[in-house]
From TrEMBL:
Classification via InterPro entries: Glyco_hydro_43 (IPR006710), Glyco_hydro_beta-prop_sf (IPR023296), Glycosyl_Hydrlase_43_Enz (IPR052176)
Organism listed in the record: Bifidobacterium hapali
Entry similarity comment: Belongs to the glycosyl hydrolase 43 family.
Protein name as it appears in the record: Endo-1,4-beta-xylanase
Classification lineage: Bacteria, Bacillati, Actinomycetota, Actinomycetes, Bifidobacteriales
SUPFAM superfamilies in alphabetical order: Arabinanase/levansucrase/invertase (SSF75005)
């Protein structure tokens, strides 16, 4: 090949986000590759992003991110061992591709026909290993060769309903609501381990102004593959038993948000918040069942109207202290607040409200858990900062040696989960925490939203409004760890801190436990 075979590369084309400040070096290679080569998917919506990055050693990487679901109609999942991509080059660029060096049978280096090269690349299905190609351009009458690595990863957001199943769920998943095929939008996940399985109870998202009214139950044997068990709370009708009653929660039919959960004495308690249609006053409500994945009956008690008015706020989360056996509920937006639950699990023990200013920047989404390390218990108060539509929605935490106290026993410890803009994963917040029974393995279930380029904001056809970032949230799961202070540090009062939770495209590895 000679320079006569290619048109001149058009100089100084502007490329978004690469910060080019002159020719030469890695930035110029990034600019040239982004100008000259693109990779798309053959299945509509499967490729969420195709980002050009510096891979070092004069290499450039194109990182292709696939949606977890390749077919929202059937629930078929994306598979890096079987994915169809299409390569597109500009007229001033050509590609060399050596199949043999990439582990394929052919030993031919195809470069005589660009259409043949593209056909061979487009025929590749297995991307478990990166594909190596060389991009060639004519720049200033010289051939410039840039090694390019094509890498494919899947964004793990497994909690979703397929289109057909969703259409049966009283509108959830149907295309009449947001224009989406299938239903991927869930938020505020409450994760639970029970009976050898895992369960997630989330807010149903995807509606303008956080207008979801149903709570689903998702179940998994291994934290990886999730099955929709259907709607367990439906405030549109306010009845689950066919009775047709609408007076259980008068005027409480508009929204169901932020589930909390408790299991006590063979009963399952599903807490959630929302507001009424008339005055939009926030309220905490309870539904009770004899089984975990259905049969929940809404309780007529309209909130915790005692000396701590939980009814006036949102985001309930319930916690059993493993050291004392006491039950606590946390809720609200600011300051950090919790109180002891009475035996009925629907009222607060008078005089037990604790407020703390150690929850610096708290907005909502409180959660409590405890861990014993080297014989010492530490309590963790985790919570969300900023607005759920903000890309900087994130999680921070405080610790304490005991739940009892006046609030001064809590110490702010910093942020533990923050967005990764380079991956397009934003607004990482409102969470719950899981300890796998019988282990010291810990997981956090949280929601995020994706960049508009990855997940465009649809329109809620019910009200004709475009979704905000905080209306298109998706559930993710990550494993996290703690620091390990030695005996001397523990004796001096140091506590295990939560290590920063990595924000990755990948999900978690399968983990089972025995009931």
């Amino acid at each position: 090949m000679s320079t006569a075979d290619l048109p001149q590369y058009p100089e100084r084309r502007m490329v978004r986000g690469n910060g080019i400040h002159g020719d030469g070096g890695p930035y110029e290679r990034l600019r040239i590759v982004e100008d000259s080569l693109s990779i798309t998917g053959t299945i509509d919506g499967q490729v969420l992003a195709s980002r050009v990055r510096n891979a070092g050693d004069s290499n450039v990487a194109i990182d292709v991110t696939l949606d977890y679901w390749s077919d929202p109609h059937t629930g078929e999942q994306s598979n890096v061992a079987n994915v169809a991509l299409e390569y597109h080059t500009q007229p001033w660029a050509t590609i060399e591709y050596d199949a043999a060096s990439n582990g394929y049978e052919s030993s031919e280096t195809v470069q005589s026909s660009q259409s043949a090269v593209l056909a061979q690349l487009n025929a590749i299905r297995d991307y478990r290993n990166p594909i190596n190609i060389t991009l060639i351009i004519n720049k200033d009458d010289e051939l410039v060769r840039i090694p390019v690595i094509v890498r494919v990863a899947i964004l793990d957001t497994p909690v979703r309903i397929s289109g057909n199943r969703g259409a049966e769920q009283r509108g959830v998943g149907a295309t009449t609501s947001t224009g989406e095929i299938g239903w991927r939008y869930f938020a505020d996940p409450q994760i639970v381990a029970y009976g050898g399985k895992y369960y997630i109870f989330p807010t149903t998202d995807g509606y303008a102004d956080w207008g979801g009214w149903q709570i689903h139950c998702f179940a998994s044997d291994d934290l990886v593959t999730w099955e929709d068990r259907g709607v367990v709370v439906d405030l549109k009708d306010q009845h689950l038993d066919g009775s047709g009653r609408t007076d259980i929660l008068p005027d409480r039919t508009s929204c169901a948000w932020a589930p909390g959960f408790a299991i006590r004495d063979g009963k399952f308690y599903l807490y959630f918040s929302g507001h009424g249609r008339a005055d939009r006053t926030n309220q905490t409500n309870v539904a009770i069942s004899d089984r975990i994945d259905g049969g929940y009956e809404l309780q007529p008690l309209a909130g915790f109207n005692h000396d701590g008015v939980v009814a006036g706020d949102i985001d309930p989360a319930v916690f059993e202290d493993p050291r004392t056996g006491k039950w606590w509920i946390t809720w609200g937006q600011s300051p950090g607040m919790y109180a002891e639950l009475a035996d009925d699990m629907m009222s607060i023990v008078p005089g037990t409200i604790v407020e703390t200013d150690a929850t610096r920047g708290i907005r909502e989404g409180s959660y409590l858990h405890a861990r014993c390390y080297k014989g010492v218990w530490t309590y963790y108060y985790t919570y969300s900062i900023d607005d759920t539509s903000s890309e900087w929605y994130r999680i921070a935490y405080a610790t304490a040696p005991s739940m009892e106290g006046d609030g001064s026993q809590w110490t702010y410890r910093g942020e533990m989960l923050v967005q990764d803009a380079s991956k397009g994963i934003r607004g990482t917040g409102h969470h719950s925490i899981l300890q796998v029974p019988g282990t010291d393995d810990w997981y956090i279930a949280y929601h995020c939203f994706l960049d508009d380029a990855m997940r465009p904001r649809g329109v809620d056809a019910r009200v004709g409004k475009q979704l905000m970032n905080g209306n298109k949230r998706e559930v993710r799961i990550a494993k996290f760890t703690y620091t390990h202070p030695d005996d001397a540090a523990i004796a001096a009062g140091e506590v295990p801190l939560i290590n920063a939770v990595p924000v990755t495209l990948a999900g978690v590895r399968a983990q089972r436990y025995e009931a």
